[in-house]
């Protein structure tokens, strides 16, 4: 017949095991099972308390490890993403220079100014970004993501510009 | 790998308990009784040894209806490492070690 203390101790360990990570659950089940072999009820309660502490520490350490890994992964991807954004910036600068030289050309019709402006500052760069991102997606995903992020920024900027300046 | 093992006196006690019967599987509660370590101290050591691949674990198959028990024993690397660590521990702190002579 299981005493109330032992039942409570068993319930405590079971609850902690249920809420632990899969790796910790295996260890938790092991500790819970060993409690059946502890003779004294109070010793069983102490065993349960020690086990829950050990499980919590193990789960916490694993979560911290995982967080450190994902931070490391993000740190590795950041330069590649930045290079994609820099590449996208170069495209915009080239389009700007092209636009500037077209606007100054003697043959250019000023009526078409707005159209050429939108074409060279939005349509052409965005099309190039899309093609570049698709081409790089499989082999250099972070670079492609950087290009897409730059594309999103450019679209947002153009939207605000067109809304405020017409 | 074994250089990552933190050598507390409790870890040494656990390694020493395993070296009493190097190839035998041990239960957690039995190790606790042999070493006098509580579950909250013993299991983190076992987990760390297992993470470092110095300890192998297995679930004992039991008769139907009874849940299995978890068993532990040192891997070949764990055995070498345990012997080495206990040797260096006893060499460094001969007066503090109450574990008996290092085996092996």
Concise summary:
The complex is a heterodimer of chains A (166) and B (104). By secondary structure, chain A is mainly alpha-helical.
Please tell me what the overall shape of chain B is.
globular
SSE class of chain B: mainly alpha
What's the helical proportion of residues of chain A?
Answer: over 70%
Average pLDDT confidence of chain A is 87
State the oligomer. Answer: heterodimer
Radius of gyration computed on alpha carbons of chain B: 14 Å
Strand content of chain A: under 5%
Helical content of chain B stands at 40-55%
* Order of strands across the main sheet of chain B: 1-3-2
How are helices and strands ordered from N to C of chain B?
HEHHEEH
**In DSSP terms, counting alpha (H) and pi (I) runs of 4 or more, how many helices of chain B?**
4
The number of helical segments of chain A is 5
Topology as H/E string of chain A?
A: HHHHH
Tell me about the biggest sheet of chain A?
none
Share of β-strand residues of chain B = 5-15%
Distance between the amino and carboxyl termini of chain B: 21 Å
Shape of chain A: rod-shaped
Number of beta-strand segments of chain A: 0
Spans where pLDDT lies below 50 across 5 or more residues of chain B: none
Strand-helix topology:
The complex is a heterodimer of chains A (166) and B (104).
Chain A: H1 4-18, H2 22-35, H3 41-104, H4 113-136, H5 141-165
Chain B: H1 9-19, E1 26-27, H2 28-35, H3 39-51, E2 55-59, E3 70-74, H4 76-92
Helix pairs in contact in B: 1-4
């Amino acid at each position: 017949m299981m005493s109330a203390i032992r039942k409570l101790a068993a319930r405590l360990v079971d609850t902690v095991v249920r809420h632990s990570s899969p790796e910790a659950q295996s260890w938790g089940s092991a500790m819970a099972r060993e409690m059946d072999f502890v003779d004294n009820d109070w010793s069983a309660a102490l065993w349960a308390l020690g086990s829950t502490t050990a499980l919590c520490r193990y789960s916490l350490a694993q979560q911290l490890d995982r967080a450190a890994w994902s931070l490391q992964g993000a740190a590795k991807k950041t330069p590649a993403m930045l290079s994609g954004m820099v590449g996208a910036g170069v495209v915009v600068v080239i389009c700007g220079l092209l636009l500037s030289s077209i606007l100054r050309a003697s043959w250019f019709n000023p009526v078409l100014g707005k159209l050429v402006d939108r074409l060279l500052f939005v349509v052409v760069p965005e099309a190039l970004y899309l093609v570049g991102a698709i081409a790089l997606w499989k082999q250099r995903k972070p670079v492609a993501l950087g290009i897409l992020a730059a594309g999103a920024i450019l679209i947002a900027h153009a939207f605000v510009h067109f809304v405020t300046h017409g | 790998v074994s250089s990552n093992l933190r050598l507390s006196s409790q870890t040494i006690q656990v390694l020493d308990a395993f070296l009493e019967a190097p190839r035998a599987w041990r239960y957690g509660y039995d190790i606790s009784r042999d070493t006098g370590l509580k579950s909250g101290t013993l299991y983190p050591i076992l987990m760390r040894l297992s993470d470092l691949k110095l300890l192998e674990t297995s679930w004992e198959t039991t008769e139907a209806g009874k849940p299995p028990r978890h068993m532990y024993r040192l891997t070949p690397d764990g055995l070498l490492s345990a012997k080495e660590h206990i040797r260096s521990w006893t060499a460094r702190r001969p007066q503090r070690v109450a574990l008996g002579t290092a085996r092996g």
